[in-house]
What we know:
By secondary structure, chain A is an alpha+beta fold. Chain A has helices at residues 42-50, 92-102, 108-121, 137-149, 167-184, 195-201, 219-224, 229-234, and strands at 4-13, 16-26, 31-35, 57-62, 65-66, 77-80, 155-159, 187-192, 204-209, 212-217, 239-248, 251-255, 261-263, 271-278, 284-287, 295-305, 309-316, 319-326, 336-340, 347-350.
Amino acid sequence: MATLELNQIVKSFGSVDVLHGISLSIESGQFVSLLGPSGCGKTTLLRIIAGLEAVTRGTLRIAGRDVTDVAPENRDIAMMFQSYALLPHMSVRENVRFPLRMRNRGTRKEQDERVQATLETVQLGHLADRMPRQLSGGQQQRVALARAIVSDPKILLLDEPLSNLDARLREDMQVELIELHRRLGLTTVFVTHDQEEALSLSDTVVLMNAGRIEQVGGPQEIYASPRTGFTSEFIGSANLIPVRVEETAAGPRATLPWGEVIAVAPGSKPSHKASLVLRQEDMKLLPSQTIIPNGFRATVETRVFLGARIRYVLRLGDMRIKCLAPGTDIFGPGDAVVVSVPDSRAQIIEA
Amino acid sequence: MVKAVPNTLRVFASLFVALTLVFILAPLVVVAGVSVSESQFIAFPPSGFSLRWFAAIFDSNAYVQALITSLKLATLVTVTATIVGAGAAIALHRRRLPGTSLLAGLFLSPLILPSIIFAIGLLMLWSATIGPVSFWALWIGHMVIALPYVIRTTLAVLADSDPFLEEAARTMGASRWQRILYVVLPQCVPGLAAGAFFAFNISFDEAVVALFLRTPDLVTLPIQIYNQLEFSPDPTVAAVSTLMMGLTVFLIATLDRFLGIQRFVGT
Amino acid sequence: MRDRVEDLALAGPGILLLALAFVLPIAEMLGLSILGTHRELTLEHFIRFLSDPYYLGIVWRTIYLSLLITAICAAIGFPLAYVMARIRPALRLWLIVLIILPLMTSVVVRTFGWMVLLGRGGLIPFTLWKLGFVGRNFTLMHTEAAIVIGMVQVLLPFTTLSILGVVMKIDRRLEEASRTMGAGFFATLRIVILPLAMPGILAGSLLAFTLSVSSFVTPSLLGGVRLPVVAASIYDAATKTLEWNFAAAQSVILLVGVLLALTPYIKLSGRRHG
């Protein structure tokens, strides 16, 4: 368990910069997600923390010690790989013992006890003598997890560890990861491209885009107050509508491209070039005659049935926006509707 | 049901495959047949059945000497080519050396460049720099031919292994030597074993380099057979040849038993 | 940096071996080919070889026999590989093993088998005589036919496996698509499979040709001294008449020919392996 400080980390492959000066400070015991689309640099950043990739510029401290030039084997970290990287010629027990053996932790007997205890933690005590290929994907994943926590590392690094599991196992493992983290309190850095996973697991979400940190914050904060268009689009795939914001006696008002005016979140600053962030699930569709406190008119263009919910594509002037509604609202293509938006959910960001 | 391939064509295809197999296997069957013939003339089909020609091998000093030379040579080549090939394959697989693909081309080129060309060069170079050719010249020559097989089979199994094993080992505290010893080499084992089989077989069967580098005291089994064929073949040649084929069959069967031959035949 | 040192140490023995025992010998051979009796630079060995009708005859024999052998191998190898690609995997594995078995048997042993089959009183001439195709018992040994038969058996496995590797990668649905569009079995084979298999056929043929022009044991034993090929001529110069510079010059000529054939081969097989 230790703090992790990244200071102006720059990484270039040849002439291509993949990380442009990343600075980040992670407190001891935090569970941090590096979230972003593929190619945003999150995996490279994780590999830099592990020491598997050298930095081009910048420094990196683990528990206050500068480890920028320290080899991965000497950083006292643990990493769980997307492919699990279990050693196929070693049994489960030997795989989990491997980090202790390489680091000469304790006697053989102490190592064995520690391995057995760790395997019990992930409910694999009974499979200790199996070979990795004899295990299911979910069991292999647990072995990899056991191997990562057995040596009590300063930092635990997880590279999309759940992406090879099917949806149900994935949910189970998410719960288990949360509990494990609560129990062990390991400083954990978790790479994922799945925003739901990042929001549900972490204390802090680091949203990355194109080699830069887009926004850092708690899951609630990132979700509720996106500071950039990218954040709002990536988290919850919101609609972005260019608007002009003016302050009125009744509060801030935004003028939509097709002329309608709606109330937006209190505190929004006046601007000629701003974007209105409308989350798909924050809008409510009502029949066109309905009187609503705040909103605008639209026409249904397409309807996609998703089971519990329905996704509508709405046309407003020459724009299209998407909207998620409960499965019971039935509108068909061509129907005129009004879209109700609570002003607190109409966030404004600078374009 | 409509058949995609007409029945007559199926029959024709089966016949074609069968005839081709007969053609490919004919010389081997014939040699085996001659070796168990009672007749003291080489003739096929064999007349009678006798194992006396196999016994005759061991009465012949020339054959016994050649057999010993070949076994010594093939064993030495197998061991050294496997060790050297393991290192080369690991380095090529990691692709960290500049010009790796060029290096890979160099390592595999003895596979496609006819051995007669390099055999004569080796003969000339050895004579010019070291002196009369010896067992060691033959050892070096066979190493060059066997090495690409070891490298190829080892690269094949490494390509199938999880590319993150070494990095995972690093994050678990394994040093350079520990990574090679505990992680990389165990991955190589099936490829090295297959490569060793090929290396032994090639060195034991090879006739071109051995022919160029032969001296009266340095005759391998294939060269001894070649000499006999040039002059006065008798059924003993067939018996020796049959032994060699038996060894090849044994090697292929062992390879298949332990490693599965599919992995190493390229399809 | 230390990674490179480590990898260099691993590959070092192999690099050293190939440099000293493969590259250097070929360089030595190149050097000797242009040295005269008094170690002066000269092209006399090349001129001697290329201006003597006897040696040109050997070259011509080597080339046309190799072309013939290569063509026969491709003609048998393509349908064989196609059939193998379309049968049950278990059966295919057996066929592969049966084809590899001769490949892994010493060429000396295989040639010996043909000597028995083709010689006077051998199974093939004897059968032809009994069936009335020929007037008397005769020998096929020391004929060009014997060389071709023996070499096709030696090289057919190479060609077949090379073509098989490519045919196995052809999507079966292409054939099915072709059939649904009205092409018959043979039309599909000709219009769809053959063009797609062509890289494999060419690569296999180039390999077979290279091995054929440089082969020594089989042509020498089956063709005898009156039908020498280039490799036999090199062998004689190197070990019998001990004209090493002349042997080196002939090897250089063979090497140039082989490299000409190998350049497209490397391109073809390189593209195939991606």
